[in-house]
Amino acid sequence: MKRLIRLVGPRMSPADGRVVSNFVTQAVKGEPLTVYGDGLQTRSFQYVHDLVDGLILLMNRNYSEPVNLGNPEEYTINDFAQIIREKVMASPPAPKCVDIKVLPAAMDDPKKRKPDITRAKKYLNWQPKFSVSQGLQETIDWFKLQVTEGTI
């Protein structure tokens, strides 16, 4: 059994309702990034290539216990929004401005989500190789191309 953690990478659906695709879509369109609550809740994100590597290792092992495949590096939602805003603004085509809009928090929004990848390290000899920053840049570049082509 595998447990997947929030992904970052090209070809994400802009309308899947997740924080990465929401923030990147909003930023490349020059729309305000929507932060719910105080933005201090933390999340961990994983580059899609790391996930694929972990899944291949898992499929080739005879291991049936739950395994978390994720990057344990945590970001507050506020910090993550700022990182995306800076990356989008740093490379063309860049919108004139990307603001942050704060809305009320969801009642069931957890304050922290961080995977424990101890089993992945121990039984699969797996851990993330790629930085979230690298994955975000590829994601942003892909979303910018989609905006330029008019597909989002």
Structure commentary:
This protein is globular. The chain has five helices and eight strands. The protein has a single domain, classed as Rossmann fold. The protein is an alpha/beta fold and 152 residues long. Helix 1 packs parallel to helix 3 and helix 3 crosses helix 5. Strands 1-6 form a two-stranded parallel sheet. The chain has a two-stranded parallel ribbon with strand order 2-5. A two-stranded parallel ribbon has the order 3-8. The model has no long low-confidence stretch (mean pLDDT 92).
How would you describe this structure in keywords?
Rossmann fold; globular; 8 strands; alpha/beta; two-stranded parallel sheet; 16% strand; 152 residues
Ordered list of secondary-structure elements with their pairings:
Blueprint: E1 2-4, E2 7-8, H1 19-28, E3 33-36, E4 42-44, E5 46-47, H2 48-59, E6 67-69, E7 74-76, H3 77-90, E8 100-103, H4 118-124, H5 132-149
Parallel strand pairs: 1-6, 2-5, 3-8
Antiparallel strand pairs: 4-7
Uncertain residue segments: none
CATH superfamily: NAD(P)-binding Rossmann-like Domain
CATH class category label: Alpha Beta
Cα distance, first to last residue?
34 Å
Q: How many E-type strands?
A: 8
* Sheet having the most strands: 2 strands, parallel
What strand order characterises the main sheet?
Answer: 1-6
Secondary-structure element order, N to C? EEHEEEHEEHEHH
What share of the residues lie within helices? 40-55%
Shape: globular
Rg is: 16 Å
